[in-house]
Specification:
The protein is built from 6 helices and 8 strands. The chain has one domain: 3-Layer(aba) Sandwich (Chemotaxis protein chec). By secondary structure, the protein is an alpha+beta fold. The chain is 35% helix and 26% strand.
Length: 160
């Protein structure tokens, strides 16, 4: 799954947001058994929410289940990761319902920005998104150098 795009959306007074058609097309067909697209919504690592398509969530859960739960750091990470995780299915209008504690965590009110990244979708409040994206262009260049390799010749190894 290779999701891409940035989508501003409205959140209604019941905490529902409609997933954009362009994003749903990237997900493929909805689950006929579930009656809609299946997701798991969870807290993100920053002040955002992460919406995982169900198959992606199951893959991550499988990896987490292999962690040694006798290790206190592993236990703490697993607890923290699952905190607030909520299974969701889109309704007939392609909406999902955001739980109030998750909305409070991410500072969400009437608007959100959906960021599709590879196999997941982040849900940001416009304010938190703007603060996160306020990275200076030079900082972004340094970050790209650190993350993408930036070996002696300045070209990271993108093949491996």
């Amino acid at each position: 799954m290779k999701l891409i795009g940035e989508y501003p959306v409205a959140i209604d007074n019941k905490g529902r947001l409609r997933l954009p058609t362009a994003l749903l097309r990237q997900l493929g067909e909805a689950s006929p058994e579930a009656g809609g697209y299946e997701f798991v919504l969870n807290r993100g690592f920053e002040k955002c929410l992460t919406l995982y398509p169900k198959p992606v969530w199951e893959e991550i859960s499988t990896k987490l289940n292999r962690l040694n739960r006798f290790n206190d750091r592993n236990r703490m990470f697993v607890r923290s990761f699952y905190l607030g995780a909520t299974p969701l299915v889109t309704d007939s209008a392609d909406r999902i319902l955001l739980q109030k504690p998750l909305m409070d965590y991410a500072g969400l009110n009437a608007e959100a920005i959906l960021i599709a990244m590879d196999d997941r979708i982040e849900i940001w409040s416009p304010e938190n998104y703007e603060a996160m994206m306020s990275l200076d262009p030079n900082q972004f260049a340094d970050l790209a150098n650190d993350v993408m390799g930036g070996g002696e010749d300045g070209v990271g190894d993108l093949e491996n």
